[in-house]
Amino acid sequence: MIMVWFRKLFLSLTIIFLFSLSACSTVGQPTASQSAETEIPPVKTGGGIITEGKVIPKSYVQLSFQVSGKVSEILVKEGDSVKTGDVLVRLGNRAEAEAELARAELELLNAQQALNDLIDNHPIEKARALEAVAQANDRVRSAKYQLDNFTIPQSQQNLDAVEAVKLMEERLDQARLAFEPYKNDSLLNDARQKLKEALDNAQSDYNAAVKRLNYEVQLEAAKADLEKALDHWEKIKNGPDPDQLALAKARINAAEMALRSAQARLENLELKATIDGNVAKIDLVVGSQVTPNTIVVTLADFSSWYVYTENLTEIEVVEIQENQSVTIVPDALPELVLTGTVESIGQVFEVKQGDITYTTKILLNESDPRLRWGMTVLVTFQK
């Protein structure tokens, strides 16, 4: 107890001395550093380096909502113990989000069922495809037979089917035009008889040309159907149609994305603990409006404590080592002497009042129920 009192007295006297020097060297308006809260610099003694530090819990998180809304439920209070995943606060307007989630789940179920049906029905689809090939072959065979057994009139031998139809139609029109003046004459009229015979022959030639063209059209259509049936057979003979399979999988992917979005929307209406610990602070009441990324709950793990010192200069820090023993005395509890161990020494510097400084992290070897987050402590790095 006497040693702790001596250390604080020594540190205080040192600070007074340093301020005296500063007062002698500076006249006029106070500097920015003087206007701000004064940070006690480290002091070297025969027993080690003495400086100030702050008590920090083992870990802590500051939580905020990702969406705006009105608070409908607060499920914890300050001081409560929580586990990772526990719901702390809920926002309202859940009905719409739950309906969206239900629709997304149904669409995913339907998409998965469609893919299953495509796979399960493949044997049937394969049989139908093979049957379509056989039927198309039959139609090609029949169309070829009809065309092969069709006798092309002598007058059309050197014409293709389309040319023959066109020419025979012209001759039919000419024969009809020639017969028109005689069509009401006596059937025994020689001129009428000859023109009527010419008209009948022209009509017969035209009919033959049309029939030939129809046979060729039927054959080409049958060949096209056969080619289409063969293409389909090639696509599905070893599995479901790749195009339909890709569409089914794309539908599932889209449904999964929609489901994740709906789940995230619903989950964003709940604020959950991300660490095991205690509720340190709640800045909410039921009915209050929250905005995204505004800190509303702070959680901390008070199972162990750390002390951070942030003002060791490059002169002192070289005398500090990891695993070095430390004694700690809280300003608010001068009778309490705790021990600790240097866990880490910062690698990145910070300039303070013109000095290069480094942060040390000290793990307390024991605790006390009276310790509070942010308490100022006197830290002695033992030699």
Strand content: 25-35%
Shape: rod-shaped
Structural class: alpha+beta
Q: Could you tell me the mean pLDDT?
A: 89
Number of strands: 14
CATH superfamily descriptor of the largest domain: Efflux pump adaptor protein, beta barrel domain
Which architecture of the largest domain does the CATH hierarchy give at level 2?
Answer: Beta Barrel
pLDDT under 50 segments (min length 5)? 1-37
Taking all Cα atoms into account, the compactness measure Rg is 48 Å
Q: What's the CATH first level of the largest domain?
A: Mainly Beta
- Distinct helical segment count: 8
Summed up, the domain count is 2
Biggest sheet layout: 6 strands, antiparallel, barrel
- Write down the secondary-structure element order: HHEEEEEHHHHHEEEEHEEEEE
N-end to C-end Cα span: 20 Å
At the fold tier of CATH, the topology name of the largest domain is Elongation Factor Tu (Ef-tu), domain 3
Q: What's a concise summary of this model?
A:
The protein has helices at residues 2-25, 32-35, 94-120, 122-148, 161-179, 190-236, 242-267, 314-317; strands at residues 43-45, 48-64, 69-74, 81-82, 87-91, 270-272, 277-282, 289-290, 295-313, 325-330, 338-345, 350-352, 355-364, 376-382. By secondary structure, it is of the alpha+beta class. The protein has 2 domains: 2-65 and 301-382, Elongation Factor Tu (Ef-tu), domain 3 (Beta Barrel), CATH 2.40.30; 119-248.
